[in-house]
Protein 1
Amino acid sequence: MQLGEFIGFCAAFLTTASFIPQAWLTFKSRDVSGISLGMYSAFTLGVALWLVYGLTLGAWPVVVANTITLALALSILVMKLRYGRKRRH
């Protein structure tokens, strides 16, 4: 493995791993009140585009990191859509 690829994998690991605690907290609490639908939609689309970009280049650190992050982001976005509506009694 070349130095550039090693640095890419380290960066991918750290940025993806840093996302996991927030995702886990959201999954556990189902509290999505602090999540902006617009921001999270744009973020998820951006991650999907990074994934496509990584695939076109064959940049595996980018592909692996964005595959994992996209799965987490989509899960939270679905939760925001599902649980984010204020319920009226």
Note: The mean pLDDT is 89.
Protein 2
Amino acid sequence: MFSALVLSVALTLAPVVTPPPGGGDLDYQLGGAVRPDPRVEIVVRDRNAPPSPGRYNVCYVNGFQTQPDEASFWRDRWSLVLKEDGRAVVDEAWGEWLLDIRTTTKRAALARIVGRWIDGCARDGFDAVEFDNLDSWSRSRGLITRAQAKAFARTLVARAHADGLAAGQKNWAELDGTVLGFDFAVAEECGRYAECGDYVASYGSRVLAVEYRRADFDRACARWGARLGIVLRDRALSRTGVRSWC
């Protein structure tokens, strides 16, 4: 009886996590916050930007790699950056160092850092958080395993849920992130790489799709526009850049 009561109280006190509206139009504003178009229901912004009033807000957190403008921060925590032969392993496409998530101790240390960012998203009034570069293992020169990436992802998702935030999977389309606790997906260029269906298989209409080329956007709209929120953006995600919706 006592155990059942404790469980009931715990469930009652647990924060309510609300995933984004399925199929809602979105704006991907990582390059700078602007007033969203009236049709937009979902706004994704960097963790250092404020949420957009009256919309469903997703907070961007680079959970598995560093931000290029935070080199000084990570040099002070150099042991947590993945290295090979003493040199940081770099995601060349974005100039980002990979975080070293290979051991339980390092994952715990990184979770304390990223966890504070997640807490900040919740305090600022965001509804959800997306964790970028879940697939950093694929750029780690074989140093990071899939299992280690999954273990760290579970930790981050649990922290988000404890803060009342829905958690979004970013990258690794072949993975059904719901087994790790993810509530939705942010899919960059799933039209270009024919991956939208992989995310839909896991999340249904709770897939936020971003395309950067008109032909890919048109193709994604033709196949998935009736079910998913899809936006065309310029690759720089600039404040005044391209924005189109299906």
Note: The first helix runs from residue 2 to 13.
Protein 3
Amino acid sequence: MRGALALLAALTGGPALAECRLALALGLDVSGSVDAREYRLQLDGVAGALETPAVHQALFSMPGAYVDIAVYQWGAPWQQRLLLDWTTLRSAADTAVVAGQLRTASHSFSDPSTAIGSAIEFGVALLSDRPDCWAHTIDISGDGPSNSGPPPGSLTLPAPPYITVNGLVVNPLARDNIGKDLSRAKTLRNHYETQVIRGPGAFVEVAESFQDFERAMTRKLIREVQPAVVGSAERP
């Protein structure tokens, strides 16, 4: 009920309540299959997406009900690293600070294995630090299927609070995906649709290449953070 009242106040011009409407944990695949150029395209792509006017409109169209964001990178089952701890986005100045931090970030992992299940578990642990947010989303970006660690489709996520896991598939038809184990799925996108995403409103966005990453991330962020799609705002 508290979230619904804050939503009504924001939409009708009533007194704003300083509440978190969405906790968004962005997980980026930087395993050994991602080279230095692709690493930069991902980090700079997230930074660029956060600075676009359309994303700003989605982020800041509900004064008093803000979005908290954290960014981490992942690879093998034992390889996760927090790049940006929980940060509140209330203004363009906040997104500029986050973008600056991401553009100077470095360090990828040499292990070629891809542990999506472990990446999701790391995101769940991050979200446990934001229990009062109305909605909780993990955003997994990757260029290959899970081939190490716990199978993502076998994970049981805690509820409530309910968690949505969305996906951003990179290079789904690229030559380097031909040799990857997709025995349980028709395509890399299908692997994400059947094994990775789950929860209220879960979806998969596609980047045709790493060069397309910023545009895909922009589309996905708009869809994730705009108030109209934060369904948990109506839960008590």
Note: The longest strand covers residues 19-29.
Protein 4
Amino acid sequence: MQQKQTYDQQAYQRLASSVKPKPRVIINAINAFWVGGTISALAQLITIIFTSAGMSTRDAASATVIVMVFLGAFLTGLGLYDEIGKIAGAGSIIPITGFANSIVAPAMEFKREGFVFGVAARMFNIAGPVLVYGFIVSVLIGLIAYFVK
């Protein structure tokens, strides 16, 4: 009986392998590269615009982060960021816009459950652990820097 199961499992694996589509690694890498590069180039363009308008480099960088978070959240709200993600894969998770998407997408998914138990409770499902561990590490690094000086 055990031998029959093993043979059936092997036959199934061969059948599944023959039907399963082959991964398009090169195409996916190219799409991730150009979409991620386009998002980064847009951020750089926004930074240049803010700098040329008279902002300091630090203020322009902060304003650019705000604009990119807004664009990521806005495109997620319109349902366009998911379409970008289908094309770009990992190229769409550039830290700033991907972060905005990771907060807005769960909030939109659970909005029918209400603002408190839906949007507010589910908003940080994905980004929450990142924020908590980022906060903890930044506090630890700050304490180490304080005591080392």
Note: The mean pLDDT is 84.
